[in-house]
Amino acid sequence: MKFYKRIGTAFIALAALALPARATELNLWVMATTDSQQHDMQALLKPYLDRHPGLRINVTVLNWEAAWSKITVAAVAGDGPDIIELGTTWVPSLAAMDVLEPVGADTLHDVGGATAFFPALWGTTHPYNDAHIYAVPWYGDARAAFYRTDVFKAAGVDPAEAFRNWDTFRAALQRINGMTVGGRKIAALGYPGKNDWNVVHNIMPWIWNAGGDVTSADYRHSAINSPASVAGVTYYANLAAQGLVPKSALEQDSGQIESNFCNGDYAVIFSGPWLLKPLHTPKARGGFQETVAAQNFSIAPYPAGPKGAYTFFSGSDLAVMKASRSKDAAWRVVAYLTGRDAEIQYTRMTSMMPARVDAANAPELTADRDYRALLSAVHNGRHYVSIPSWGPLESVYVKGLGNVFDIVAGVKGAYAPAAVKHQLDLTANEANDLMAQLQ
Amino acid sequence: MTDIQHTTTPLRTTAPSKARKRRFDSYPYLLLMPAVLMMLCVNLLPILQGFWMSLLKLNQYTLHQYLDAPFVGLDNYRHVLMSPGSPIRAGLAGALRNTVLYTLVVTISSIVIGLGVALLLNRDFPGKRLARTALMLPWVVPSYVVGTLWGFMWQKDTGIINVVLVDWLHLLPSKPFWLLGPGTFWAIVIPTVWRGWPVLMLIFLAALQSIPQDLYDAAATDGASKFRQFIHITLPCLLPVIVIQFMFQIIDNIYSYNIVSMMFGNGAGHPGEWGDLLMPLLTRQSFNYWLFGQGSAVSFVIMALMLMFVGMWMTAFKRRMTSDA
Amino acid sequence: MRRRDHLNHQLLNILTWAIVVVSLLPIAWMVLSSLRSYGDIVGGKQLDGGFSLRWQNYVDMWTQVDFLSYFGNSLFICGATTLLATLASACAAYALARYRFRGSDAATLGITVTQVVPGMLFFLPLYMLYQHLHQQYGLRMLNTYHGLIFLYVALFTPASIWIMRGFFVSIPRELEDAAIIDGCSRLGAFVRIILPISAPGIIATATFIFLLAWDELFFAWILTDSPSVQTVPVGIRLFIGQFEHRYDLLMAAATVSTLPVLAAFFVTQRYFIKGLAAGAVKG
Predict the structure, then answer these.
(1) Which chain C residues contact residue A36 at CB under 8 A?
(2) Rounded mean pLDDT of C190-195?
(3) Looking at the domain assignment, is residue A426 inside a domain?
(4) Who among C39, C127, C238 is closest to A288 (CB)?
(5) B258 within domain boundaries
(6) What is d(CA B245, CA B114) in angstroms, rounded to the nearest whole number?
(7) N or C end of chain A, less CB within 10 A?
(8) What is the β-pairing status of strands A144-148 and A136-142?
(9) C183 CA to chain B: closest CA distance, Å?
């Protein structure tokens, strides 16, 4: 009996040795960027998982409001995912909340360091006054003008001239506005008003190009009502006040403006790389490929203002949370996802742009004409200052700048540039109060 | 089933009160216990912690310390109630005005329509089962879908409501804005009423069913008109239910959030001066900025006000709402 | 006299059906939108497509997100919540409606207090509580069915207690007292006399609870992470993201998600027949 017991124990011990080591499990939170994000992430991670059989990655898909709540509880509770996708505007705020693990030297080396990524995006990986890097840029989106080539041709407008500077831009719009093309009346320009999450991103290039900014140079006060900023906002708002943007556009959000561009309502809109996906997807799969707009569009940069020709360049970064129990494994996954091949593959899935310079310049991507146009806009890409209070500040500006569009729409009394200035003053006050709170 | 016999004075009317004073009757406590235990678990601790949070400097920099964040006593309360620079104050007056108006209009409309339709459905007519089910549909649609759906319906140029009002029925000369400007008030009131009255109708219908038919028969024999029957029989019997529903409707509407948040930019946009309600404002101006200390303080102030309201309501209608013991 | 009654009856019927139709117009719009592409929805062109309906949306909605999973989870979680909450609140409401005892006023006050707590206030403490239970006692509450069910039952019981109490109060006491004189126990009187009479009220309350649970989005999102536990509201909400706006699939999913409740409601209609309530009281 004893003999059999001994054999049995030895057998079990051997069997235990032969079993694979307990699998590492990682949790990854991503935003819903494609319409089947869960499947796409599984496809993206598959090559990596094939090479690491003991690894399991659980993907949770969020959209942005849920992300805020969940990150907040994770910050408090000290749990949360291992890897998280964060919008570039959020990283400084979360770094200040002490929930992100600084990127280690190995990972920095693996991903190629600061020079491997676009400078505007690299700037988003840490607060301006903190030398530690807290995230690695994943994908980017630069905004540009999408315009109808057939409408421009019919109006005799040269696109290069139209987008040269603010004066030529307005002149071109005036020529196009109200034309009938293919039996449809078309408006010159479409942009959303306040019912949109993009309010600040939409208006920022116009403020920057007039020489303004959201905060003063010392980051302590709001500069949204500086003369330069006011000039930028006024120019942009005037486009609608002069009827170059139909009033009904002002109650829509970005998605609706983009869809209506595809439906043929506007000759010009400002959008980003994500619009390429529906433009290239057939209607049967929920896209607009067969529309006149999709067959006749091109991309041009923002017209240059008096003080610059910037565009808004943002995107998402990947970070590892302090609460993660498998940080090394998590960083290796981050290095994989921000590597050249994975970024190219993700670009194909989402039609966003890689954050890596070498991936962005890959021949298989630059073969596409529209992609090249967006890539050239990246050179003038600019992002907000990386201050920890940007998260809350953006909310204040969304509201304050949104109210400017109400003034333009005429629902708050007659439109007058003085009213715009007044609204910006109110916004600056509220922002200053908030910044004082957040010191 | 034995015959139920009416006796004029059931024997236990006086005995139980004496019996209760003499021995401990555990029966009602046992009935109450499951519900109370659950509510205590889920509500008590969070409320206490929430109150403690309102006494702390809890913002994005101290959030990870949670309950160990610096203690500031009543500073948060002082700040939100008295200091004009508090972020919460921005737009608060407008939101309060909107919320009060919104609550009154929605509550009264929902109750009146719910009661009216319940009376209509309380009769026998062809297809009544289908009608009752169909009328529940507005309430069965998820609330955040209602916001998106009506957001499309309220569009100025292409929305179906303006198309019907202006192009088809010519009731208005031109298409107004509903999602911008003063129209936003009606843009949020109407979907809320549309979604809210079916459940009230359901509850009133159920209550109408338990009014004994012989009360009506007796009144009809005495020659009372249908209208008098309504005033003297139906309304008094329904009053407990109406009073409670009125209170709940008010509470629900003051805390209304889902429809408003989804209608304007799918949760991202700001509804504007006439569409902003209390909860969206507070969520946006405090919790979204990670100012948890102030957000908690404001939440407690609102809770206190609501409790006062409920207290006054219950005192006024106490006889109607409790048993007649 | 008879003819006028008949005419009134017909007019009221017409009025009733008119109300039904007007009430359902937005629903019709939602269903029509679910059969169009989202470009058509945004452009307000639902009426322009004629009969070329996009049934494909009803297929795509199950594949774009894991909707079958969400649907099944919701059915289970909301069903369990309804059963437990109805049971707990019926007992509690009966106790409060019929008995005055020490603590009944405090209980009533407590129940009311829970209704005026803003949700924003207690999502953090609640999450911390669930995490604490896991860390201290090994009881997993986050990302589980029972975690959500427990929360929902606790959240929705108070309002249900109030509603059912209203129903119980309007039932005359004589009924139970008579039964007790006949030899019934108090519990027996409750179960065999009161419950059948208040069946419409209980069904109404159960429907109410089911729908509150079916519609609940915020806590479903906070307390869960994976599609194996998440519910329909989370799934529906995922159709609209920052860059993807599949309103057509959203409308299709919303339509589909109304069906279980409607079916249940249609089936339980007979409890609203008047006879059942009246019969027990007539001599």
Answers:
(1) 63-65
(2) 80
(3) no
(4) C39
(5) yes
(6) 11
(7) N
(8) unpaired
(9) 10
- A64 to chain C, any CB pair closer than 8 A? The answer is yes
Q: What is the pLDDT of residue A137?
A: 96
Q: Looking at chain B from residue 74 to 93, which residues have their Cβ under 8 Å from any Cβ of chain A?
A: 85-87, 90-91
The pLDDT value recorded for residue B9 is 41
Cβ distance B240 to C280 less than 8 Å, yes or no, reads no
Show which subunits contact A, needing at least 3 CB pairs below 8 angstroms.
Answer: B, C
The answer on pLDDT for A16 being more than 70 is no
Distances from the Cα of B160 to the Cα of A418, A435, B195, C226, angstroms: 36, 43, 18, 38
Contacts of residue B158 in chain A, CB cutoff 8 Å? 248
Environment class of B163 (CB within 10 Å of its CB; exposed 0-12, middle 13-18, buried 19+): middle
Q: Check residue C253 and give its pLDDT.
A: 93
Asked whether residue B141 is domain-assigned, the answer is yes
Looking at residue B265, its pLDDT comes to: 74
Residue in A57, A59, A61 to test binding to C, most C beta-carbons within 10 Å:
A61
In-domain check, residue B45: no
Q: What angle do CA C128, C130, C135 make, to 5 degrees?
A: 90
Res A5: pLDDT? 66
Nearest residue, CB atoms, B63 vs list A76, A247, A409? A76
Residue B197 lies in a domain: yes
A39: containing domain:
21-141+314-382
> Which residues of chain B make contact with A436, given a CB cutoff of 8 A?
85
* Residue of A251, A407, A411 to mutate for B, most B C-beta atoms under 10 A: A251
Q: Is residue B268 located within the same domain as residue B157? A: yes
Share of chain A above pLDDT 70, in %: 95
Given a cut of 90, whether residue A121 has pLDDT beyond it is yes
User: Which residues of chain B have a pLDDT value below 70?
Assistant: 1-24, 267, 269, 318-325
- Chain C neighbors of A64, CB-CB under 8 A: 241-242
Whether residue C190 contacts residue C90, with contact meaning beta carbons closer than 8 Å, is answered with: no
Q: What is the CATH number of the domain that holds A42?
A: 3.40.190.10
**B60 at interface of A, judged by CB pairs closer than 8 A:** yes
| Cβ of residue A42 closer than 8 Å to a chain C Cβ | no
For A283, the closest chain C residue by CA position comes to: C37
How sure is the predictor about A321, in pLDDT bands with cuts at 50, 70 and 90? very high
Fold of the C65-238 domain: MetI-like fold (1.10.3720)
Q: Which helix (H) or strand (E) holds C18?
A: helix C2-34
Cβ atoms within 10 Å, residue B14: 10
Give the integer Cα–Cα distance in Å for B131 and C148. 34
Residues B234 and B101 in one domain: yes
**Residue of higher predicted confidence among A208 and C179:** A208
Asked whether residue A99 is assigned to any structural domain, the reply reads: yes
CATH number at residue B208: 1.10.3720.10
Q: Please indicate, yes or no, whether residues B170 and B200 belong to a single structural domain of this protein.
A: yes
Of the candidates B265, B188, C234, B184, the residue with the CA atom closest to the CA atom of residue A395: B265
Domain of B314? Answer: 52-83+286-325
- A430 part of contact set with chain B, CB < 8 Å: yes
pLDDT of residue A284: 84
* pLDDT at site A14: 58
C-alpha C209/C-alpha C236 separation (Å) is 20
Interval C75-84 mean pLDDT = 95
Same domain, B199 and B318: no
Task: Assess if residue A25 is contained within a domain.
Answer: yes
pTM attached to this predicted model: 0.86
Confidence of residue A411 (pLDDT cuts 50, 70, 90): confident
